From TrEMBL:
Residue ranges annotated for the RNA polymerase sigma factor 70 region 4 type domain, each copy included: 103-152
Residues covered by the RNA polymerase sigma-70 region domain: 13-74
The keyword Transcription belongs to this UniProt entry's keyword annotation: yes
Family annotation (CDD domains): Sigma70_r4
Listed GO MF terms: DNA binding; sigma factor activity
Matches recorded under InterPro entries: RNA_pol_sigma-70-like, RNA_pol_sigma-70_dom, RNA_pol_sigma70_r2, RNA_pol_sigma70_r4_t2, RNA_pol_sigma_r2, RNA_pol_sigma_r3/r4-like, WH-like_DNA-bd_sf
Family of the protein in this entry: Belongs to the sigma-70 factor family. ECF subfamily.
Organism expressing this protein natively: Acetobacter nitrogenifigens DSM 23921 = NBRC 105050
Name the record gives this protein: RNA polymerase sigma factor
């Protein structure tokens, strides 16, 4: 049984990483969360019933570990805590800007909606599996995904209030990226012969 258990743990690691990243919004924290969840699973492997849904069992362990860690910290990060590297724009390509906008919008979704969207859309989890994992009704799971999709769509087409901090930040970053690109294309220098950038 131990070999089968370890094989299943290894096989589910990529999906756990996606879920952890959706929950933590930080790559290093996500890796730590996955590692802690795997340690919890290994120490509790005797409680797993062979033949049941191993993926749902592991996702629940990861989610419970995340909630436990949040309770210990007693502070939830917000958009102001996103590292500057995620907010900077290295290129004026539309696809990169769209990905940045999507990352901002995903970070703003309520945790339960963000998690539901990632598990269903990116990982292909069924609504039934999501409901079992999160301990809610199937209708609630569907509703969370629907609301998350609808909110993301609204944000992605620019349906943000003018005083929204996210919008202000995204506009400032986009303006700065466009300014630098324009200067680089025009060959403007900073007086020492080196192009601005």
């Amino acid at each position: 049984m131990a070999d089968t258990f370890h094989t299943q743990v290894i096989a589910i690691l990529p999906k756990l990483r996606v879920q952890a990243l959706a929950l933590t919004r930080n790559r290093a924290a996500a890796e730590d969360l996955v590692q802690d969840a795997v340690c919890n699973a290994l120490s509790a492997r005797e409680s797993f019933v062979p033949g049941t849904n191993f993926g749902a069992w592991m996702h629940r362990i990861l989610r419970n570990r995340f909630i436990s860690d949040l309770r210990k910290q007693r502070n939830v990060t917000d958009i102001e805590d996103v590292p500057a590297s995620l907010l900077s724009t290295k290129s004026d390509h539309e696809d990169r800007l769209a990905v940045k906008d999507l990352a901002f919008a995903l970070a703003r979704l309520p945790e339960d909606q963000r998690e539901a969207l990632v598990l269903v859309v990116l990982q292909g989890m069924s609504y039934q599996e999501l409901a079992e994992l999160t301990g809610c009704a199937v209708g609630t799971a569907k509703s969370r995904v629907f609301r998350a999709r609808r909110q993301l769509e609204a944000w992605m087409v620019g349906d943000l209030p003018a005083d929204d901090k996210l919008r202000q930040r995204a506009v400032a970053l986009r303006d700065e990226a466009n300014r630098r690109t324009s200067l680089a294309r025009a060959g403007v220098s900073n007086g020492s012969g080196a192009a601005l950038g």
